[in-house]
Design brief:
By secondary structure, this protein is an alpha/beta fold. The chain folds into 2 domains: 316 residues, 3-Layer(aba) Sandwich (Alkaline Phosphatase, subunit A); 106 residues, 2-Layer Sandwich (Arylsulfatase, C-terminal domain). It has 13 helices and 18 strands. An 8-stranded mixed beta sheet has the order 6-5-7-1-8-12-2-13, sandwiched between helices.
């Protein structure tokens, strides 16, 4: 059979509700919006694990982080027997191309991300420059030199990841002075040491919350232009998947300008799929990053791995009733999300009883949080104490899931530790600032 080309475009930290096709009022994403008009747009797609390394490992393996055991940034290792999407494509006769930094960024500690590629071009993420344009150039050059036969292309853009710093004209394109819902001074007051260092790296020209958000939106527009150029220059026809690894917090859970906390603002992802000859539309059912691999395999008739995966074909009509999300990088938590409710369980101690603080370095309470998504979609009112029966039922369900996944082994969230606890994060952040001011 003649297999279609597959193009997988990943945009790091792309929060869907900052795109026009997901209802955003500002014109941040004309190229992505055009792609959405030709695609199935997944309105409720979620990351099973955050941040970047666990999320992409899940997308490319079809396995929940509890199954592949990569819960943090590089420091863990994926088993050699676990097969990734480019390996499956290569075995089926695809020329496989990766334009990505997941191997290079971790100093080689994420080496599994290079598995299966005929051509892999890596880079160290450098904000404030033309890196997305360079990445587009590399992808187009390699894709158009691939020769006969089907091609699998993975392109991983890092705009709009922090620190935000789009180039002109994108830096002021979406700025409306004083339009933010909070004062930036109030954000700094949450944890002055942290936010002073965090925001200093962005070299803000205006002490205005709206300006910070406009920088994030500007980076979306900056990468959107490159996505438009990429799609215009690639051979047709192709299956095109555009996806993000996680979103970004702008106040949810008292967190700002980063991607921690298992609130929908962070776990909800951008996901759209253009299939040649198939109609566009919206997909309302809950979808997980676990479903990326089996969905693309079904569309391209690629064989699945020989072992059970946790993902499912998102187009096969089987609805997900719940998604379990995990975080274990700068704080540790588990969440169980259903159609109507979200339970977030802070993990406050590791397997040896040592405390696991929050991203500000503070001790955390172990009390679960419960949100009624039907009346509180922004997860601003914790109703765990007011609804103890629902809280207990969801806790029992989450505990049963963990028990089934762990089996006779160790619970990975209790043994993985935090990959970037507060002291190390601040040390690295201040070192960067010294480099830029020396």
């Amino acid at each position: 059979m003649t297999r279609p080309n597959i193009v997988m475009i990943a945009v790091d930290t792309l929060r869907p509700d900052h795109l026009g096709c997901y209802g955003y009022a500002r014109p941040t994403s004309p190229a992505i919006d055009r792609l959405a008009e030709e695609s199935l747009v997944f309105d409720r797609a979620f990351a099973a694990g955050i941040p970047t390394t666990p999320s992409f490992t899940t997308m490319l393996t079809g396995l929940h982080p509890y199954r592949h055991r990569v819960l943090t940034h590089p420091g863990q290792h994926l088993a050699g027997s676990t097969r990734l999407l480019p390996q499956l494509a290569k075995a089926a006769g695809y020329t496989t191309i990766g334009c990505d930094n997941l191997v290079v960024q971790g100093g080689g500690r994420g080496a599994w991300f290079a598995r299966g590629y005929d051509f892999y071009t890596g880079f160290v993420y450098q904000p404030f420059g033309e890196q997305s344009a360079d990445l587009t150039d590399r992808a187009l050059r390699l894709a158009n030199q691939a020769g006969d036969g089907p091609t699998f292309l993975f392109v991983h853009y890092w705009d709009p990841h922090t620190p935000y710093g789009p180039r002109p004209p994108y830096d002021t394109m979406h700025y409306q002075p004083g339009s933010g819902p909070v004062d930036l001074a109030d954000v700094r007051a949450i944890h002055p040491e942290y936010y002073t260092a965090f925001l200093a790296e962005m070299d803000l020209r205006h002490e205005d919350y709206a300006y910070v958000v406009a920088q994030y939106d500007g980076e979306i527009s900056q990468v959107d232009a490159q996505i438009g150029r990429l799609l215009a220059g690639l051979p047709e026809p192709a299956i095109v998947l555009l996806v993000s690894d996680h979103g970004e917090a702008f106040g949810e859970g008292g967190l700002y300008f980063d991607h921690h906390g298992l609130y929908d603002a962070v776990t909800r992802i951008t996901m759209m799929l253009r299939v040649p000859g198939e109609p566009a539309g919206r997909v309302e059912a809950m979808t997980s990053t676990e479903d990326v691999l089996p969905t693309l395999c079904a569309l391209a008739d690629l064989p699945l791995p020989e072992y059970p995966i946790t993902g499912q074909d998102a187009l096969a009509g089987r609805r997900r009733e719940r998604i379990v999300c995990v975080e274990s990088s700068r704080q540790a938590s588990l969440a169980l999300r259903t159609e109507s409710a979200k339970l977030i369980l802070p993990i406050t101690e590791d397997a040896d009883g040592r405390p696991l603080p929050d991203l500000y370095g503070r001790l955390r309470r172990p009390d679960p949080q419960l949100y009624d998504l039907g009346v509180d979609p922004t997860e601003s009112c914790n109703v765990a104490a007011a609804r103890p029966e629902i809280t207990a039922a969801l806790l029992a369900e989450l505990d049963a899931w963990r028990t089934a996944e762990v089996g006779d082994g160790a619970d990975p969230i209790l043994t993985s530790g935090l990959s970037l606890p507060y002291d190390r994060f601040m040390e690295r952040r201040l070192a960067r600032l010294r480099e830029t001011t020396d």
